[in-house]
Amino acid sequence: MELMRYRDYIWDLGGTLLDNYELSTQAFCETLEAFDRPVPEHDAVYAALKISTAEAIARYAADIPDFLGRYKENEAIDLQRPILFSGAKETLEAIVAEGGRHFLWSHRDSQVLDILERAGIISYFEEVVTADQGFPRKPDPKALLYLKDKYQMTDALVIGDREIDILAGQTAGMATYLVDGDHCLKDILDLDRTEEVG
């Protein structure tokens, strides 16, 4: 079997392993309805949330003081049933079987640990970095540099679905791989080990 080029894989969660944008869109629209506001087109809300929660609120709920709290409550209920992208668990399993290590960096607080547990994949991760650890948000690379130093990483791949994931990885001197909802995660196993991706 060909050896993997990368030993360490640092994952984003939402939009990368977890198909959460659909759940978040539903929760966002439900919250707008609860405030008796008109609900925009589904795809427009989805696109705004892919940029950031702050972007979606700025567009559709900037004048509702309690919106963020109510939205997060609704989203947390929906996230009780996390949905992984096709191939996510199989990819994690295959990399571990070949001697690779997994890490995760999320903007979410410790709630992310519950999500990983319910999704049945928490056991694959050496460490999960959450917002509770106080690192600056992406694309600042400090969380990646912390992992790089702590685990003496020399051949890490940062995987995410947004440009901020890629920029953080590149700034930290790591290889990067951009995925989207239509991209099969199993393709990561077939990456050319002789070239940097990103």
Ordered list of secondary-structure elements with their pairings:
Blueprint: E1 8-11, H1 21-34, H2 42-51, H3 53-60, H4 67-78, H5 88-97, E2 101-105, H6 111-119, E3 125-129, H7 142-150, E4 156-160, H8 163-171, E5 175-178
Parallel strand pairs: 1-2, 1-4, 2-3, 4-5
Short structural description:
This protein is α/β, with parallel strands linked by helices.
Alpha-beta content class: alpha/beta
Q: Whole-number radius of gyration?
A: 17 Å
- Main sheet strand line-up: 3-2-1-4-5
SSE ordering:
EHHHHHEHEHEHE
Beta strand count: 5
Mean pLDDT: 90
Percentage beta strand: 5-15%
InterPro entries: HAD-like_hydrolase_sf (IPR050155), HAD-like_sf (IPR036412), HAD-SF_hydro_IA (IPR006439), HAD_2 (IPR041492), HAD_sf (IPR023214), PGP-like_dom2 (IPR023198)
Keywords: Hydrolase
Protein name: HAD superfamily hydrolase (TIGR01549 family)
GO molecular function, one term: hydrolase activity
Task: Give me some keywords for this one.
single chain; 198 residues; alpha/beta; 5-stranded parallel beta sheet; 5 strands; disordered C terminus; HAD superfamily hydrolase (TIGR01549 family); hydrolase activity; HAD-like_sf; hydrolase; HAD_2
Describe this structure in words.
- Strand 2 (101-105), helix 6 (111-119) and strand 3 (125-129) form a beta-alpha-beta unit.
- The protein starts with 7 loop residues before the first strand and ends in a 20-residue tail after the last strand.
- It has helices at 21-34, 42-51, 53-60, 67-78, 88-97, 111-119, 142-150, 163-171; strands at residues 8-11, 101-105, 125-129, 156-160, 175-178.
- With 198 residues, it is of the alpha/beta class.
- Helices cover 41% and strands 12% of the residues.
- It has a five-stranded parallel beta sheet, with helices on both faces.
